[in-house]
Amino acid sequence: MSAPSLAELEFLPVLDADGLMPDTFDGKVGVYAIFDAAKILQYVGYSRDVSLSLKQHLVRQPQSCYWFKVQTIDRPSRSILEATRDAWIGENGAVPLGNAAAADLWNQPIDAKPRMTTAEQTAYESSDEPGKIKALKQVARRIEIEVMQDLEARGVKLPIRFDPKAKESGLLNLK
User: Fold this and answer.
1) Residues 148/155, Cβ–Cβ less than 8 Å
2) Do the beta carbons of residue 155 and residue 19 sit within 8 Å?
3) Which superkingdom is the protein from (predicted)?
4) How far is CA 99 from the centre of its chain?
5) Which of 8, 104, 113, 121 sits at a 20 to 30 Å CA gap from 72?
6) What is the pTM of this model?
7) Closest to 169 (Cα-Cα) out of 128, 127, 135, 118
8) What is the CATH number of domain 6-107?
9) What's the distance, Cα to Cα, between the start and end of the chain in Å?
10) What pLDDT, in 10s, does the model give residues 23-59?
């Protein structure tokens, strides 16, 4: 089975008029490409749950996730998924930023540590282990508020919940 080219697939909105994501791809295995508002390719990935992955990317990169194209497959095969991803990147003519220099911003939990204020950094460094955890949680909560404001400004109405345990490490990852 050969997957369709990226150009053959239709653009689908990441968010509908109500600020929600389509549930069509819940639990579906597939390859997806994410585009910004100008329909410029930002990232190509594959997942065992396309909807969940799209939600993660939307939370991490809300200003870069407006449109997507997707190809689902019935029988998961990493080699087919990777080959399709690579073909789509090749078809684009350049590696999208999300698959290159900005890959961590697309694929890793939001790390609050680099966004610590000087006061937060000082409090963190002068604390014992329980104090460090508390400081990281506070920073993560502050960044969470900023992320939620960015999502609200983007029109997102999805329920978003971050893993409370990850906050102890200063990370924001969807639960």
Assistant:
1) no
2) yes
3) Bacteria
4) 12
5) 104
6) 0.92
7) 135
8) 3.40.1440
9) 34
10) 999 999 999 999 999 999 999 999 999 999 999 999 9
